[in-house]
Amino acid sequence: MSPAVRKVEASGEGRFVCVQWEDGSESSYPCVWLRDSCRCPLCFLPSAGARMLLLEDLDVDIVVKQVALADSKKISVTWPDDHTSEYEAEWLKKRCFSEEARAVMRTDLFLPECQYWGSDLQLPKIPFEEIMCNDESAYEWLCTLKKVGIVLLTGAATKQGELIRLGHRIGFLRLTFYGPTWQVQDKADANNVAYTTGRLCFHTDYPVLQHPPGVQFLHCIKQTAAGGESEVVDGFNVSNKLKKQNPEAYQILSSTAVDYADVGVDYCDFAVHCKQRIIDMDSRGQAVRINYNNATRDTVFDIPAEKVRPFYAALKEFNDLLNSAEHKFTYKLKPGDVLTFDNWRVLHGRQSYPSCSEVTRHLEGAYADWDVVMSRLQLLRKRILNRD
């Protein structure tokens, strides 16, 4: 049932509006926020979902002149300049400032649930064409990708271009210096270590960019008979282990700015330099992004000399945890498989395979930003769950 208002009144010398709900709960709304959030045509543009009220026209000390209950589903507030604002009960209830209500809204908007895993990963699998044609399957894919960090799509055509289709399904792909998509295969004079037959150690892609791609897609078009197994590890799970095992090492990796560099020619010529912490944390000290690629870590290291060895010791311990048998999951992609994973969380690698005069292993890769992925997820969610 939609929420209904029993009573509304001003409080706190007119600086708050207190709403008593029919279910017995109460919500208190600051007047400055209510005025700032006015939904009338002068203050809000519905077609854009955007505020038109200018901040310079907002009185941060505003008080309510009059508050009334229009009906059980709407309240009306009159301000000192006689401007009137109306607020729907359901709209207000969702935006209650209580800790519980704010937690519900955070979960609804950002889906923060995280399912950690190690070598025991049960790799989620969904048919590629199902997510292309069916909204429920696409929603399941993106929800699982957000929660687990990795999903295998099966049965795609074994030709280039399937990732372009996948990009259109969510919105659009991320263009980088390696192009809208890129071909992972053994190449002469390779401009990236991935374009060789050698082993690739665990890494996230593109920490050399200020904003690394959030999601990566790898489509297996051709697979070598020997070697070439893929490996993945949950970076958030390993970061948590490091934090418990060696808090000092965690502190070093989450506070030291590491230099990355990537210089070459591909989609265009490029010379990129960036500083990143190996472990990016939120305000609660929880890892929210891993930025680690040993191949593109620069020889330039902008820290005092005496801090260099402690950094290497911390990084070595983190790397050892990444490579421990209990944490890494190994599998071999088959032609038609599309691996989709969280590039901010999941580190990936590859075992070596024999060099040959012809191409024996071919993956097509692409990126998408989490903004694009989360946008599609929320749109699918509203459609499937019939949410406003």
Give an overview in words.
With 388 residues, the protein is an alpha+beta fold. 27% of the residues lie in helices and 29% in strands. It has helices at residues 31-36, 89-94, 99-110, 128-133, 135-148, 162-170, 235-245, 247-253, 308-323, 370-385, and strands spanning 5-11, 16-21, 26-30, 44-45, 50-51, 66-71, 74-78, 84-88, 125-127, 150-154, 182-184, 200-203, 215-222, 230-234, 257-265, 269-277, 279-281, 287-290, 328-331, 338-342, 346-350, 362-368. A hairpin with a 4-residue loop joins strand 4 and strand 5 (50-51). It is elongated, with a radius of gyration of 26 Å. Its EC number is 1.14.11.1. It catalyses: 4-(trimethylamino)butanoate + 2-oxoglutarate + O2 = carnitine + succinate + CO2.
Q: What is the rounded Rg?
A: 26 Å
Q: Which second-level CATH architecture of the largest domain applies?
A: 4-Layer Sandwich
Low-confidence stretches: none
Number of helices: 10
Strand order of the largest sheet: 9-10-20-13-22-11
Topology, number of strands = 22
Tell me, what is the CATH class of the largest domain? Answer: Alpha Beta
Largest sheet: 6 strands, mixed
| CATH fourth-tier homologous superfamily of the largest domain | Clavaminate synthase-like
Q: Return the CATH topology of the largest domain.
A: Double-stranded beta-helix
Distance between the termini: 14 Å
What structural class do the secondary elements suggest?
Answer: alpha+beta
How much helix, percentage-wise, in residues?
A: 25-40%
Q: What is the average per-residue confidence, as pLDDT, rounded to a whole number?
A: 96
